[in-house]
Design goal:
The complex is a heterodimer. The two termini of chain A are 26 Å apart. Chain A is built from 14 helices and 20 strands. Classes of the chains: A alpha/beta, B alpha/beta.
């Protein structure tokens, strides 16, 4: 991608403010991101010093570390634009009319109400996430549930946050997580107390899309002993962001016999570089379920890690990626089996069209003490034409000799004969492809709440629209 | 008016333009008739069925296909289906993740252009399935996934009855079926048949014809119809084979 393409989405005004900032401060021009900027950010947020310490240590790491030497090329990433983001966006009032036409039309086709569209696009201050979530909080307070923004979590529950923050994902994990810890802003903090069972999912629908909060949001969820939670992040509408980089972080802790289903439908705009990091620690008898639908972004590198740390801990992973023209979705899963009788089930699917690239990496590590571990991995890819690409790259390290392991990979092109068959039943070529793709995605779509499944099907239709002739 | 009028139809294979398949085929079917096409392997029987349906595997190099007087030679497959042509496939496709019920609703919607009334349509589906000895629970199963050969063929007949086309082409629907399943298929054809529509049966054996009132039998050799006759022609072929018609 050319630099000019990236800049296309950057508001002129924002850039002007940045230029002023360059003049007014002693910026390190080589990186465009300095200690002073971080200090200022932390001060504005009125953070305690231990948080600032993390930010500064992370910044140092960021400068020290190199880009990954594998996966999609991200060398075009312009760090100067990140500095642009840090401060000025707060004061921006963006108008709906300024949102790029392609994104607006997707909102329209998805049938999202006008008011929500505005909130999603990052304008409309009355839809501030705190207001939206207030009612939810009231309802859950009785059970002792904490659900708040991450910034507020630091302010109100410093001890709890301090205990878990950076413990699943350390700041030196990789270059872009270091960047994340230097700049994190927004995101959710969730604590589900012992034995509490939520009967409906918590959703971070708006939070990710609030202005300036989407890029480096930090989500920290603790599901305490015997508690149950379903959490849905993101939304199926494309996030409109000024920056081309998303480096969020998700830290999950599933305590003894607890259960967490963490679902993501991601549909970032197609100029986005999505370098998200997600990790989950699962204690004895606990279970994590990852459900992911990846539709948007230009490049994604996303490999949630589950550490099965206690006996009988379980990980279920369902993933679907849909890569269209110019998209390179590099996703996968990492699992560490660190205790006996732990189990993992992976069901990953990908769809690629118009030269889109889908790669699925699985990195499995079964430690010696993980006796009687069970792992079943299955990957299935569907290519809609002959210029698209799909790869499956498994890496398995198995140190225990008492393990049941299976890995199944199936890669195929969409069947011309099936399309023809459906056309003899009166469906157009587009409708036929859409039905086949929907069927392919069905096992994952049905794991989402119905309104998300419906939107996912709509997204599939949108992705396929206009691909014929 | 002729229900189907095929005039001097010539086709070549999409993947091999030198391969001539149909070479000046003529066929006229009137409303209310059942026609049978027989012929040795490779003579072009399935090509004929798929050319009527504008399959991308074949290219029409000459001649025309008219349905009720309208030229459909250059229409797309889905447009032809909407004009009232149906085909029962030799090997019906499986569509994983899509239930039979969802499939039937979608195809009915596509063909008629309007959403079927859910209660009425469901009732009709259940009734038709019962008549074809199909278990109604199958509506919740994925389309043709894990169905036996016989169940897949019955599913084709089910769609024919629900879509009620003007012309139904049955491409070797009887192949691989046991005696009981063949009887059910013929029963389905008789349920469908009336004075206004027509059936074109492509087959290798006469078992399926036993319970049907066949009007014409055609012998197809090297892409042309070389002999036509009444139902006695089918019996003659069963006894003596095609050798007489192959040059």
């Amino acid at each position: 991608m050319q630099k000019t393409d990236i800049n296309k989405y950057v508001d002129n005004e924002v850039r002007n403010i940045y230029d002023e900032a360059v003049i007014n401060t002693t910026l390190d021009k080589k990186f465009g991101l300095t200690r002073e900027i971080i200090e200022e950010l932390s001060k504005e947020k009125e953070e305690p010093s231990w948080v600032l310490d993390i930010r500064l240590k992370a910044l140092e790491q960021f400068y020290k570390m190199e880009d990954p030497d594998w996966g999609p090329d991200i060398s075009y990433l312009n760090i100067d634009n990140i500095a642009t983001y840090v401060k000025p966006v707060d004061n921006e009032v963006r108008r709906w009319e300024d949102v790029p036409e392609d994104i607006r039309s997707v909102f329209d086709k998805l049938g999202i109400p006008e008011s929500e569209k505005k909130a999603l696009a990052g304008s409309g201050a009355q839809f501030d996430s705190e207001i939206v979530y207030h009612n939810l909080t009231e309802d859950l307070k009785k059970q002792g549930v904490i659900y708040t923004s991450f910034d507020e979590g630091i302010r109100k529950y410093p001890e709890l946050v301090k205990k878990y923050f950076t413990k699943a994902v350390p700041i030196y994990d990789h270059k872009y997580i270091a960047l994340h810890y230097a700049l994190f802003s927004g995101g959710s903090f969730v604590y589900i107390p012992k034995g509490a069972k939520l009967d409906r999912p918590l959703q971070s629908y708006f939070r990710l899309n609030a202005p300036g909060a989407g890029q480096f949001e930090h989500t920290l969820i603790i599901v305490d002993e015997g508690a149950e939670l379903q959490f849905i992040e993101g939304c199926s509408a494309p996030g409109y962001n000024e920056l081309n980089l998303h480096a969020g972080c998700v830290e999950l802790f599933v305590e003894k016999n607890a259960y967490l289903r963490f679902s993501t439908i991601e549909n970032w705009s197609k100029n986005m570089l999505n370098l998200n990091t997600k990790k989950c620690y699962v204690s004895e008898g606990g279970k994590i379920e990852w459900i992911m639908g990846s539709f948007g972004s230009k490049v994604s590198m996303l490999y949630p890690l589950s550490v099965l740390n206690g006996e009988g801990a379980k990980c279920d992973f369902l993933n679907i990626s849909f890569a269209g023209k110019g998209q390179n979705l590099d996703t996968g899963i990492k699992v560490i089996h660190n205790a006996p009788r732990t189990s993992t089930v992976v069901n990953a699917k990908s769809i690629s069209k118009d030269g889109g690239i889908c790669t699925f990496r699985s990195n499995v590590h079964v430690k010696k003490k993980a006796k009687k571990a069970k792992l079943a991995l299955s990957c299935e890819s569907l290519m809609l034409d002959s210029i698209s690409r799909s790869d499956t790259i498994p890496v398995n390290t198995i140190e225990s000799d008492d393990v049941v392991f299976s890995h199944e990979a199936k890669i195929g092109k969409i069947s011309e004969q099936a399309i023809y068959y459906l056309m003899t039943r009166g469906m157009s070529e587009e409708e036929a492809k859409s039905l086949i793709v929907r069927g392919f995605a069905e096992p994952i779509a049905k794991a989402f709440p119905v309104e998300y499944a419906v939107e996912m099907n709509r997204l599939i239709d949108l992705e396929l629209e206009g691909t014929i002739g | 008016m002729d229900l189907l009028n095929i005039n001097k139809l010539c086709t070549i294979a999409e993947d091999d333009h030198d391969k001539k398949i149909l070479q000046g085929l003529d066929l006229v079917i009137k409303p209310g008739e059942i026609h049978v096409i027989m012929g040795p392997n490779g003579s072009g029987k399935s090509t004929l069925a798929n050319t009527i349906f504008a399959s991308p595997r074949y290219i029409v190099t000459g001649g025309s296909i008219k349905l009720c007087g309208e030229d459909i030679t250059n229409l797309s497959t889905d447009q032809i289906a909407k004009k009232g042509v149906f085909m029962s496939f030799q090997t019906p496709e499986e569509i994983p993740g899509i239930s039979l019920a969802q499939f039937l609703k979608t195809t009915k919607h596509s063909i008629t252009g309007e959403k079927p009334n859910l209660y009425k349509f469901t009732t009709e589906v259940e009734k038709t399935m019962t008549e074809l000895n199909m278990k109604y629970e199958y509506v919740n199963r994925e389309f043709n996934v894990g169905f036996s050969g016989g169940e897949k063929k019955k599913n084709e007949i089910l769609q024919m009855l629900l879509l009620n086309p003007k012309l139904a082409i049955l491409d070797e629907t009887d192949s691989g079926l046991d005696v009981d399943a063949i009887k059910i298929v013929s029963r389905g054809i008789n349920m469908y048949k009336n004075d206004d529509n027509a059936v074109l049966i492509i087959t290798h054996n006469t078992k399926i014809l036993e319970n049907l009132k066949v009007d014409r039998v055609h012998v197809l050799v090297d892409g042309k119809i070389v002999k036509s006759g009444d139902s006695s022609l089918a019996r003659e072929i069963e006894d003596n084979g095609y050798s007489k018609y192959i040059k």
